Amino acid sequence: MGTDKTCPCGSGRSFASCCEPTILGAVAVTPEALMRSRYSAYVLGYWDYLHESWHPKTRPSRVSPTSTDWLGLTIVKTTSSTVEFIAGFREDSKVMVLHETSRFEQVDGNWRYLDGDCDVSEAGRNSSCPCGSGVKTKRCCGRP
C-alpha cells in the first residue's frame, strides 16, 4: 500500500502515519491503536503481524490468509483494556457485520489481543452499510 493512501482502519489518517508503524514494529500505545492496526493487517494481509500481536495465552499456531473482503471499521467504545467495534465484510455475495468487544492485555510492555465476545450477522438491506458510507446496504456494498 502506498504511504500516502488513507489507512484502512478508518482514522482518516494516512497508512504511513497511522497503522503502518505499529505493523512494522512500533509499540501500540493503547488497545485501540493495536485493534486498529490489527484490522488494517487483516485488510492488507499482514499475517505474521496478526500472529505476533495475539496474546501468547490465546495465540493460534498460525494465522492464515482468508478470502474476506473487509469493508469498514467503526469504533463504538473503548476502555483501558477493551475495544468495542463493528466491522463490515463481504464473504461470497453476502454483506456481513462483525460486532465484537475485544479484550487486550500487556505482555512485556506491549498490548496484545487476548480474546473477544463477538456476534456475526448479515447486514440488513435497509440498515446503514457497515462500510461506514452512511448509505443503506442495498444501495452501497449490497448492490449486485
Automatic annotation (TrEMBL):
Belongs to the UPF0225 family. It holds the Pfam family YchJ_M-like. It comes from Mariprofundus aestuarium. PANTHER family: ADENYLATE CYCLASE-ASSOCIATED CAP C-TERMINAL DOMAIN-CONTAINING PROTEIN (PTHR33747:SF1), UPF0225 PROTEIN SCO1677 (PTHR33747). Residues 30-116 form the YchJ-like middle NTF2-like domain. SUPFAM superfamilies: NTF2-like, Sec-C motif. This is UPF0225 protein Ga0123461_0408.
